[in-house]
Structure formats: structure tokens, C-alpha cells
Amino acid sequence: MELDLNNLQTKDFYYDLPQELIAQTPAEPRDHSRLMTLNKKTGELSHKHFYDILDYLNPGDCLVLNDSRVLPARLYGIKEGTGAKVEFLLLTHKEGDDWEVLCGPGKRAKPGSRFVFGDGLMTAEVIDIVDEGNRIARFHYTGNFYEILDQIGQMPLPHYITKPLEDNERYQTVYSKEVGSAAAPTAGLHFTPELLDAARAKGVKVEFVTLHVGLGTFRPVTAEKVTDHKMHSEHYYLPKKTADAINETKKNGGRVIAVGTTSCRTLETVGTKYGEIKECDGWTDIFIYPGYNFKVLDGLITNFHLPESTLIMLVSALAGYDHTMNAYKVAVQEKYRFFSFGDAMLIY
Fold first, then answer.
1. How far apart are CA 71 and CA 185, in angstroms?
2. Is the pTM of this model over 0.70?
């Protein structure tokens, strides 16, 4: 199909997905999920398992992974005075003990309202209402905020996962380190420590960036025209060690392969903003869709994304629209598992 890059429609990125293909639990072991490979030049597909990824990585390549760690960001509590039930979802740390949160039901969370969580281990007061009805809440507690959160918070699994998670660590990557995400960078869930060690042993550089994933990742595109969609903003950090490794890889003719759309967006933000890769941090609201000219990336490891999402648009920009939509059609036919706990795709 011929895409009109000047008039991209959200509906161009629709595909029909049977409900039963939405993965409810992660693969065991992690690297036994399926892997579809997609050659972005030819559109050729192959069907493998994730542990076969090493066959597609060459000595001198650089894998870039997002080491952000998911907060147990869902809090259930009661409103002070009335005892009415409320749910908070931590979105972004602002400063001190102030967080931007999503509240449900919102009408209970007017400025000045106070809430109690974990039988009094933590309380919060709503101090402001911001964009899209989100609240700024100021938390009060004794001790370490994150330790209390580990005790009373729950993992913020996407709405399409209805099965309870038996082990919270299965919604974390094995290399997660920097706490701050409201959702997991799920492409990395397939890696085991052994697989990463094997990649290093093969001469592949394994480096990290940090991008704290916001819930905007899951926000549906409601605009008819793709260019009318407003991207959410997320905080990133690219360390010097990673910048040096990427620059050395490029200089020596190796490939830079991002693990996940979050790593991709971090690298492309820095490459676009500075015209080079260097140590930096900041906020990104980069929106990548067909017609985008990649500055850094040569390949991408990612999961299968929701129809009409900004993520399938990003994949289409890298792999080509026709190749991408064909790959998704085949994935449905071959009964791949979709979304956060689903199977993986390598675009190379």
C-alpha cells in the first residue's frame, strides 16, 4: 500500500488482533519466548526463539538497553474522613515528596483532600490539578519512601493483563536498576543474565541508558491524523560509557541495536538534539513515525504493539510500513503472543 507521508492516518496502523493472543503471563524461562526476525531491507521474516538472538548479533555490535526499574506504583487507600476507597497511580516524581498521580475516582481527589494508604504507613494530600486531570499529591511518611512503596504498592500492569502477577520481578528486566518507571520497558524482559554474558563473550558491547517509562506509552492515539497526536514527555539519561561505546561502534562500522522503543527514543532524541551521541539527560517527547530519518539506530528488538499505537508507528518508521504490517499479519496467523508479556521481534 502506498502511504501518503504528508497525510498519515491513525487508521493506517490498524490490524485485527484476536483477544486470545494477548499474553497474560510471561514466558518461562524468559528467553524461551518466540522471536520473529524482520529484515528491514527485504522484508524477509523468520521464526525463532529469543535465545537464538545471538545468531543475529555480530562482534562489534552495540546493544543498548533501558535499565529503568518499575515502581510498585499502584496504591489503594481510603479518603480521610469518609473512608471512601481510592486508587492512586504514581506517574512522575516532581520534587521532594510531590508526585504527579492519576486518581480514581477523580472526583474524590480535589485539592486539599487527604488520603491514607497501607493502614497509615503513608498519607497524601492533593495540592493541585494539572494536565488531563492528573493530580499533584504530597506524600507524608516516616522512613524511606521507596521501601514503604515496596510494602504497600502493587505493580502497575497494563489494563489488558487481567491475571494477577505471582512474582513482581517478572515485570522487571534482570538488569533493572534506576527506579522510576510507571511501566516496564518490556522488550528487555526476554533477556537472562546468561544471554547477556554470552553476547559480551561474542564481542557485542552491552550498554545502558535510562528512560523512565510513563503511562503515556499506553495512551491511545485519538487524533485521526497522526501528526495531530501530542506525545507524552519522559525523562532520560545517557551515560558517558554508553555514548563512548556507541561512538566507537559507529566508527568501526558496527551496528547500534536498541532493546525497546524507550532505548530507541532516547538515542534518537540525543542524536537529533545534539547531532552527536554524548553524555546528557533531559526530557523527550520525540514522536517517530514513517518518514522519520534515523540518526543512530541500525536495529531494534521490540515486542508486538497495540493497533494504532505510537509504538507500531515507530516500528513502521524503521522497518518500512508494508514490511511492518505484513509482519503483524503473519504474527497473528502464526499465533505469536502480543503486548507486554508477549513474544519479541528483531528488526535488523
1. 12
2. yes
At 153, which amino acid appears? G
Q: Which helix (H) or strand (E) holds 344?
A: strand 344-347
Whether 193 contacts 169, CB under 8 Å: no
Q: How wide is the angle at C-alpha 134 spanned by C-alphas 72 and 105, nearest 5°?
A: 80
Q: What is the 3-state secondary structure (H, E, C) of 203-250?
A: CCEEEEEEECCCHHHHCCCCCCEHHHCCCCCEEEEECHHHHHHHHHHH
Going by the DSSP 8-state scheme, the letter that residue 265 receives in this structure is H
pLDDT at 216 over 80: no
Instruction: Give the percent of the chain with pLDDT over 90.
Output: 92
Which helix (H) or strand (E) segment holds residue 52: the answer is none
Instruction: Write down all domains in the chain, each with its CATH number in brackets.
Output: 5-70+167-347 (3.40.1780.10), 74-152 (2.40.10.240)
Q: What is the mean pLDDT of the chain?
A: 96
Within 10 angstroms of residue 144's Cβ, the number of other Cβ atoms is 9
Helix 261-274 / helix 310-319 crossing angle, nearest 10 deg: 70
CB contact set of 278 (below 8 Å; sequence gap of 6+) = 238, 240, 243, 270
Distance CA 56, CA 35 (A): 11
Cβ–Cβ < 8 Å for 78, 119: no
User: What distance in Å separates the CA atoms of residue 141 and residue 121, rounded to the nearest whole number?
Assistant: 6
Task: Give the separation between CA 234 and CA 302, rounded to whole angstroms.
Answer: 19
Instruction: Give the residue ranges of DSSP H helices in the chain.
Output: 145-152, 193-201, 240-251, 261-274, 310-319, 321-333
